[in-house]
Amino acid sequence: MAPICMINADRLWTRLMALAEIGATPAGGVNRQALSDGEIAAWHRVIGWAREAGLTAATDAAGNLFLTLAGRDRAAPPLLVGSHLDSQPTGGKFDGAAGVMAALEVAVSFTERGETPARDLVVVAWMNEEGCRFAPGMMGSEAFIGVRGIEAIRAVRDASGISVGEALDRLHAAFPDLPRKPLGFAAAAYLELHIEQGPLLEAAGHTIGVVTGIQGKKTFEGVVAGAEGHAGTLPQQQRRDALAAFARIAAALHAQIGAIDAEIKFTIGRVTVEPNAPSVVPSRVTFSIDLRHPDNAVLDAAAARVAALCHQHAPPCTVMIDPLVDAPSNDFDLNLRERIGRAAHNQGLPFMAILSAAGHDARHLAKMCPAAMIFIPCRDGVSHVEHEWAEPDHVAAGASVLAQVLRELALADQPFVVGA
Ligand code: HGY
Ligand code: MN
Ligand code: MN
């Protein structure tokens, strides 16, 4: 069934594919990491499209991008809608980008219909949602709502030693004319469209997911310390082999944390070995831990066991475990969820309630204003892979539902009450 809410589906798809050319990988994916040349190029392209439609562009100290369609009451807290433009190194065309482009398409459709929202409609692209080049992720939305200080964020370095601060200064220097908004300006509500990044919508044959919340997530960084030595002369018994210790630790964590129940998600996604030389006994291993579960009590109990298991299997090496992210499962705004379901129903789109297994910036926005998410299916439920795919009709349907909800909120003369 064609979407009934005025968006230009062809323009949306064409622009989404044009955006995917920035950072395109030979295997058909996207590598457009946070604050990279690719993301700067994406800003130029998206700001160009926004300015063509009369929106104004701005940023903030955290490198978030804001594209504003002016409303009648400029002083009223705006409607925020968007996602992120950065990707994983072997990411896909849709993760984040679909949400930013759908939001921009809705804003452009307002201008084409000569409609002025009652309050500003601000399209946002959050800085470093993915947390790959710079860990942890969601730095832009965390700085925006104040759960992570901008100076702590600026101090984080990537594998080549470049700090977020240096990369942010480089981004801002590339857009010297962009005004700066204050971190954490008040917003009336936040909406985010995203691919599900899981199999449930596709399996159920549904087009729209009304996201109830996001499962809890805790991440850590572990450092195992040993001692370097000659691979040919240092006797085994005298070795403090950091990689051997990490192997024991990883096996124990997978066996005892990763198998707690059918819901737990446990990932060691990055391991760095030093000095990483074939004939040198490894002296240091740095590794990531990504732990998730929908039940906060189970997540807390599992996380509480991580450090003890690491210390148990580290000797004769030592290990340090630093917590990075502690984000409990949350619930999205009921009123917004009802609006999304109604819009999907009005447009004849099969929809279902769904918990998000993947993390999103909306988790943080939900701490400062009513927030909700709209999911669309992705092929085989896969994401964070180069062959990530979403059907044009699904992208259009998601944008059309987003448009209907935003028009309800934005065209309401009397101040709408969300979060009630
Ligand atoms: O890791 C996540 O859940 C998100 O897709 N970056
Ligand atoms: Mn994402
Ligand atoms: Mn992602």
Describe this structure in words.
- The protein has 420 residues and is of the alpha/beta class.
- The protein has two domains: 9-215 and 330-410, Aminopeptidase (3-Layer(aba) Sandwich); 216-327, 2-Layer Sandwich (Alpha-Beta Plaits).
- The chain has twelve helices and 13 strands.
- It has helices at residues 9-20, 37-52, 97-112, 139-145, 150-155, 164-174, 200-204, 242-256, 296-313, 334-346, 362-365, 392-411; strands at residues 56-59, 65-69, 79-84, 121-126, 189-195, 208-214, 216-225, 265-267, 271-274, 284-293, 318-327, 351-356, 371-376.
- The strands form two sheets. The chain has an eight-stranded mixed β-sheet. Strands 7, 8, 9, 10 and 11 form a five-stranded antiparallel β-sheet that branches.
- The longest helix is centred in the last third of the chain and has 20 residues, at 392-411.
Features:
420 residues; alpha/beta; Aminopeptidase; Alpha-Beta Plaits; eight-stranded mixed sheet; five-stranded antiparallel sheet; 12 helices; binds (2S)-amino(hydroxy)ethanoic acid
Short description:
The protein has 420 residues and is an alpha/beta fold. Helix content is 34%, strand content 20%.
Topology:
Blueprint (H helix, E strand, L loop, with lengths): L8 H12 L16 H16 L3 E4 L5 E5 L9 E6 L12 H16 L8 E6 L12 H7 L4 H6 L8 H11 L14 E7 L4 H5 L3 E7 L1 E10 L16 H15 L8 E3 L3 E4 L9 E10 L2 H18 L4 E10 L6 H13 L4 E6 L5 H4 L5 E6 L15 H20 L9
Parallel strand pairs: 3-4, 3-5, 5-13, 6-12
Antiparallel strand pairs: 1-2, 2-4, 6-13, 7-10, 7-11, 8-10, 9-10
